[in-house]
Amino acid sequence: MEAVVWVQVLGWDSKMSQRFFYLLFLLLVCAVGCSPFSRQAMDEVQREIRFKHVLEDPGRFVGKTVILGGVIVEAIVKPGDTLIIVRQTELDFQKRPRDLDRSLGRFMIRHSGFMDPAIYGQGRELTVIGNISGQKEGLVGERTYVYPLIQVQHLRLWDMRKAVTSCYDSCGPGPFCQDRHFHPWSPHPWSPYCW
């Protein structure tokens, strides 16, 4: 009933309202259905397994399928496969790493074949679905570190985030900006002042 009232208020004919609701339906389907991994891949994931438990005892979870994400620390190319060390972060609803400054630790992924370190380089974000295949010792600085080892089944390398600059980036803590760009967080968005 309410939808009919809004259609009448907007002055749309029935064909226009049908198109609008069809478009709205398509947008909702795309918003809900867009995921970097297939439903089949997500069904394999054992969501009850938390990274902190895997980090404590990787051997206990060997053979289990998990989804993890984070920021690449280093890619190591070996004959026959590539190892990537990842600093773990939580994942958002799209399974993209979030809260990039928070981490419970690191993990290592193994991919059969070559992955170019220039592409899978330091600072890039990724999400992986894979089987826990054990652990591997390595060094973080001069400290020995035990990495949970994940054998890749599905991998998503995310696009680099756009750098966000603020008024303070160009003028420091002072009251005047060097630029006159649009600053939407300011009480005066087109103002040259930082506050």
Topology:
Blueprint: H1 2-10, H2 14-33, H3 39-44, H4 51-56, E1 65-78, E2 81-89, E3 106-112, E4 125-140, E5 143-157, H5 167-171
Parallel strand pairs: 3-5
Antiparallel strand pairs: 1-2, 1-4, 2-3, 4-5
Q: Could you characterize what this model shows?
A:
By secondary structure, the chain is an alpha+beta fold. It has five helices and five strands. The protein has helices at 2-10, 14-33, 39-44, 51-56, 167-171, and strands spanning 65-78, 81-89, 106-112, 125-140, 143-157. It has a five-stranded mixed barrel.
Helix content: 10-25%
Give the CA-CA distance, first to last residue: 48 Å
Mean residue pLDDT? 81
Largest sheet: 5 strands, mixed, barrel
Number of helices: 5
Short overview:
This protein is about 25% helix and about 30% strand. The chain is of the alpha+beta class and about 200 residues long.
Protein traits:
alpha+beta; 5 helices; 5-stranded mixed barrel; 24% helix; 195 residues
